[in-house]
Design brief:
Length: about 55
């Protein structure tokens, strides 16, 4: 099926699928980054503790 908006741009079902796949990939990346960011304070504390031990 082909959709056409008021600007004359044609959008195919394949375009819609690609956009959805891209959005899903970006959501997965965002969740990954949020997971890493949530661990940064613990990682920082671990590095500080390691630095104290090595003094």
């Amino acid at each position: 099926m082909v959709n056409q908006n008021n600007n004359g741009i044609t959008i195919t079902d394949d375009d819609i699928k690609k956009a959805k796949d891209y959005k899903d990939a970006m959501d997965a990346l965002k969740n990954s980054i949020n997971g890493v960011n949530s661990k940064l304070p613990e990682f920082s504390e671990g590095l500080q503790a390691l630095a104290q031990i090595n003094r």
